[in-house]
Amino acid sequence: MKFKRSFGSTFAVFSLALVTSVSVSAGPAGVDTTNENGTPKDRIGEFTGVVEEISDHPSLDDVQKVFLENDHDQKAHLLVSDSTPILGADEITEDTLITGYYDNMKPITMIYPPQYQAVAITTGELDENKKAHKFNEDLISTDNSLKLNIEEDTKVINNDGEKFEGDLEDRELLVTYDISTRSIPAKTTPEKVVVLFEDRETMNTTYDQKIEATNMKEDISSLDIVVENEIIDTYEPYFTDDMPMVPVREIAETLGYEVTWKNGQIMIGNVASLTIGEKEYNYAKKAPIELIAPELKAGRTFVPLNFFRDVLNLNNAYLLEDQIVIDDGEKME
Fold first, then answer.
1. Which position among 19, 179, 226, 326 has the lowest Cβ density within 10 Å, counted as fewest Cβ atoms?
2. Tens of pLDDT, residues 289-321
3. What is the dihedral of CA 55, 57, 63, 68, to 10 degrees?
4. How many other C-beta atoms lie within 10 A of the C-beta of residue 44?
5. How far apart are alpha carbons 291 and 285 in whole angstroms?
6. Under 8 Å between Cβ of 43 and 104
7. Phi and psi of 115, rounded to 5°?
8. InterPro entries, per this entry (predicted)?
């Protein structure tokens, strides 16, 4: 299967390969905007791999799922809508090398392989004469590696492929250029500039809402919960705020923890505690971790799936296509 986009349509297509990441320090409420070392997360996440399969989304008519795998056997799905810019080759087919870019500030459902809403796709081998980064008021990338000189014939478009006439300062830009100086920063007159995330909030609201609604309506109640390679007999999982919720007692006990009540709190062994309706989870003597609050359903306590990774520090807690897997085996990456 393949899909094709032409430059004259709603898809902007021109030669563009490697895109580096953009650093920002702010994001939507509830989304962690810093890395473990305290540095700001990159605004643009990216995944490069070879296309293994292209299929129609089972619920959305205008969305396709592109399955990728890279040289390190890491896998990912890209959700590609009718408005996603595809930059590079005229068409994408199986065995095409592509890079998908997504908004790293958006919450991601704990699905494996991970599933990203693509904001742009580039094709082909990596190329040093392309760059995506945030550029400051002097049009210097925030990593101080490239300074742009915009001329009248520089083609500037927005994330929807339309001509952009606004200011470029303090924006995330995707640029392609021919030559640059050997100075620091290097100076270049770009051939093309794409203003990333311009009007993204309004441009893709419907698409984002459709994706989120589809995730919310997905029925996971019949999925097996597999804990350390053992299917456990337990209560049905469900979604809350796009996060799988699973029964904590049976899973924790299968992992070897004793589950008890103490002073109104649920204790997971001697290492973790939680309270129904409260977002703060305690682990050992570390600072509390905020996740979706535990819920009481049919007399059982349910916790978000990421509790087992973010609080109990297990390597894997993922929603797969046909089961939920929780274990401390080799990391799924």
1. 179
2. 999 999 999 889 999 999 999 999 999 999 887
3. -50
4. 25
5. 17
6. yes
7. -125, 125
8. Cu_amine_oxidase-like_N, Mao_N_sf
- The first and second tokens of residue 166, run together, are 């606004």
- 221-327 has which fold? Copper Amine Oxidase; Chain A, domain 1 (3.30.457)
Record the tokens describing residue 20, joined without a space: 């580096």
Q: Are strands 186-188 and 146-148 parallel, antiparallel or unpaired?
A: parallel
- Condensed to tens digits (0 to 9), the pLDDT of residues 37-91 reads 666 667 878 899 999 999 988 777 788 999 999 998 899 999 888 777 777 777 8
* Residue ranges matching CATH 3.30.457.10 in the chain: 221-327
Q: Would you say 159 and 153 are in contact if contact means Cβ atoms under 8 Å apart?
A: no
Tracing tokens 């994706």 back to the chain, one arrives at 211
Full 3-state SS string of the chain: CEEECCCCCCCCCCCCCCCCCCECCCCCCCCCCECCCCCECECEEEEEEEEEEEEECCCCCCEEEEEEECCCCCEEEEEEECCCCEECCCEEECCCEEEEEEECCCCCCCECCCEEEEEEEEECCCCCCEEEEEECCCCEECCCCEEECCCCCCEEEECCCCECCCCCCCEEEEEECCCCCCCCCEEECCCEEEECCCCHHHHCHHHHHHHHHHHHHCCCCCCEEEECCEECCCCCCEEECCEEEEEHHHHHHHCCCCEEEECCEEEECCCEEECCCCCEEEECCCCCEECCCCEEECCEEEEECCHHHHCCCCCEEEECCCEEEEECCCCCC
